[in-house]
Each structure stands twice: as structure tokens, then as C-alpha cells.
Amino acid sequence: PQQQDAMLEEKTPIDYLRQILPSTMNPTKCQTWIDARQSKDDLFHFNSDLATVHIDTPWMQIVLRVLQNKVATEDSCLYANIDVWIMNISAQVLEKGVSGMLGDRNQLDVDVDG
Fold first, then answer.
1. Closest listed residue to residue 87, CA positions, set 58, 113, 114, 51
2. pLDDT by residue (tens digit) across 1-11?
3. φ/ψ (deg, to 5) at 49
């Protein structure tokens, strides 16, 4: 019964971020960012039609860029575009291979010097 209650426990997005904080590449920097988002209550707020999200894991850093047009006009339609790329990847992941992670790109483009 207690295990079921734990599964049904509601968490806020900030709670999920705090939960994974120890597994990020830079927990101190992430903690500062999370604290700022919580105090400003602006985790999902942005003033433009462009948002960039940085995701840090112990294995890689990923960037998501979302571009959207929220208001259709006679000259434009509603659209959304999501670009995703890996900024940093661990040697362990590279050793295992990145097959399936490249999407339609089909080739690995690595700058080993940074």
C-alpha cells in the first residue's frame, strides 16, 4: 500500500529536476539554475517563440531548441520546429557506439578537441 502511494505521489517539474540533480555533469551550476527557476516561477515561461533547453546527464549534454509560431496569419501558418544535438558525450558512450542516436544525419561529426 505505501509503495502504491509513493507511485501516485504528485511531483512538480522542479521536484523532478531536483531528483536528478546528483546525476548532472555540474550539480552546483544546475542547483543555482533550478533555484532561480523556482523563485521566479518561470520554468516554462519564455517571452519569445524560441526556447533552448540544456539537458545534462552523466553521459552527455544535449541541447533542444524549439521554435514555434503561435499565431497564424495570412502569410504564415502555425508551426513548430525542434532541433536536438549532443554537445558533449562521454568516452564510454562513444566506445559503445552511437547507432540510432543520429536520426536522419547518419554520420557522426565529432570535434575531439572541443
1. 114
2. 555 455 556 78
3. -95, 20
